[in-house]
């Protein structure tokens, strides 16, 4: 399966057993996927970065606590009557994961518990030594956030020095080589958030859009031996006041044809059997739509969750700073206490009336919410037939990462 087909699909379709039980009793299902932030600190300050509101605090998740919690995840999955449980973790979050000095150990604990591991990173701290620490345990993907096509633009958008651009591409060349030598299944990709508007910082510095540099990035990613490059739209976080000032009024509405044509051109020019160019056309369209297609969030708190670097367990990462979404803390509570406790039961009720018009557009489980609503609206016979069909779908490499 092409990565694009996975990205553009409702990934929960690969989990029919979960769908059936969720439909019968949403409280009973564990999340399939969680995102975890090992480090609150970051070595960059990208201009469009929503977690700026959390202040890049130097919090780090403790490896000893995670070892216990991951072992518990395995135990809960083994005890579950349908084998349901947390199947994957994407290490990303409000800081740069590679700044955690024990990340290799943490990934190893996750893999020992049968959890699929993926990571988002800016790649600058991925030295050869660190690659050898993490790659053996990263079985799904490492996606590098590269929001520019030239050293100058990179330095301005990531708010760093131009030396990081050289360092980054050297690291990626090493990563590709070591991956090939080791026979790792980990997919290595680059991702750009498309910015189509010049932003002016408080000190008057002008940050150019990266839209003119998409081809530079596609070419460099392919020539370095990455597996894919993807391009997605920006999405304004409702609580991030700093990014709101810079990009709150940015729109793709008047340039959809140009976006489609550019995506097609890049695919024709650069895609090969070993390299995929992914333009997330549906996301660009959905970002501009006024109607989300569903009035209630069915994915929260059921399908996914987010764990902050200070251990706070949040049911939806678009509501970091809203205590209504905080379910507990993994530093002091077990997974069972957090997920199957009274707090989550109340939160499930709370979400029935929650007004999602205040939510981030094209949020993480957007396609899942659309699909779950469609499933809920089917008759029992249609649902049964749908589940039988879903059982026949081949399970993709990224199937556990929702
Ligand atoms: S941002 Fe998305 S996932 Fe979060 S509560 Fe709103 S609709 Fe649900």
Description:
The chain has 402 residues and is α/β, with parallel strands linked by helices. It contains 15 helices and twelve strands. It has a ten-stranded mixed sheet. A two-stranded antiparallel ribbon has the order 6-7. Helix 2 packs antiparallel against helix 15 and helix 3 runs parallel beside helix 4. The longest helix is centred in the middle third of the chain and has 20 residues. The radius of gyration is 20 Å and the shape is globular. The mean pLDDT is 95. The site of iron/sulfur cluster has 10 residues, from loops.
Short description:
Helices cover 39% and strands 13% of the residues.
Task: Record keyword descriptors for this entry.
15 helices, alpha/beta, globular, two-stranded antiparallel sheet, 402 residues, binds iron/sulfur cluster, 10-stranded mixed sheet
- Label the overall shape: globular
**SSE sequence, one letter per element:** HHEHEHEHEHHEEEHEHHEHEEEHHHH
- How many strands in all? 12
Our estimate of the beta-strand percent is 5-15%
Bound molecules: iron/sulfur cluster
Instruction: Give unreliable regions as ranges.
Output: none
Determine Rg (CA atoms, Å): 20 Å
Strand order of the largest sheet: 9-8-5-4-3-2-1-10-11-12
**Count of helical stretches:** 15
């Amino acid at each position: 399966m092409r990565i694009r087909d996975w990205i553009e699909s409702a990934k929960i379709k690969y989990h029919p057993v979960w769908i059936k039980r969720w439909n019968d009793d949403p409280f009973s299902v564990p999340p399939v996927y969680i995102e975890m932030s090992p480090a609150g600190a970051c070595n960059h300050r990208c201009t469009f970065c929503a977690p700026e509101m959390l202040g890049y605090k130097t919090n780090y998740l403790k490896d000893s606590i995670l070892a216990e919690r991951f072992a518990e995840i395995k135990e809960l999955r083994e005890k579950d009557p349908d084998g349901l449980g947390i199947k994957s973790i994407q290490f990303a979050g409000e800081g740069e994961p590679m700044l955690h000095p024990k990340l290799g150990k943490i990934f190893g604990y996750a893999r020992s518990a049968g959890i699929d591991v993926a990571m988002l990173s800016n790649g600058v701290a991925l030295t050869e030594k660190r690659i050898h620490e993490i790659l053996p345990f990263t079985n799904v993907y490492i996606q590098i956030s590269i929001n520019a096509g030239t050293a100058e633009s990179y330095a301005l958008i990531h708010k760093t020095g131009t030396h990081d651009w050289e360092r980054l591409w050297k690291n990626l060349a090493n990563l590709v080589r070591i991956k090939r030598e080791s026979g790792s299944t980990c997919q290595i990709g680059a991702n750009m958030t498309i910015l189509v508007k010049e932003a002016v910082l408080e000190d008057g510095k002008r940050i150019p859009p990266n839209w003119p540099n998409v081809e530079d990035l596609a070419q460099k990613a392919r020539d370095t031996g990455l597996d894919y490059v993807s391009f997605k739209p920006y999405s304004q976080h409702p609580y991030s006041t700093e990014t709101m000032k810079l990009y709150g009024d940015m729109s793709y509405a008047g340039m959809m044809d140009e976006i489609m044509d550019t995506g097609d051109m890049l695919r024709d020019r650069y895609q090969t059997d070993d390299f995929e160019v992914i333009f997330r056309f549906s996301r660009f369209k959905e970002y501009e739509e006024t109607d989300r297609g569903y009035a209630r969030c069915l994915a929260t708190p059921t399908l996914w969750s987010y764990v902050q670097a200070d251990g706070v367990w949040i049911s939806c990462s678009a509501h970091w700073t809203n205590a209504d979404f905080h379910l507990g803390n993994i530093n002091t509570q077990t997974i069972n206490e957090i997920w199957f406790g009274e707090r989550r039961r109340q939160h499930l009720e709370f979400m029935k009336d929650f007004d999602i018009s205040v939510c981030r557009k094209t949020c993480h489980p957007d396609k899942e919410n659309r699909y779950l609503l469609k499933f809920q609206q089917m008759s029992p016979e249609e649902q049964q037939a749908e589940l039988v069909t879903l059982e026949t779908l081949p399970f993709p490499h990224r199937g556990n990462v929702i």
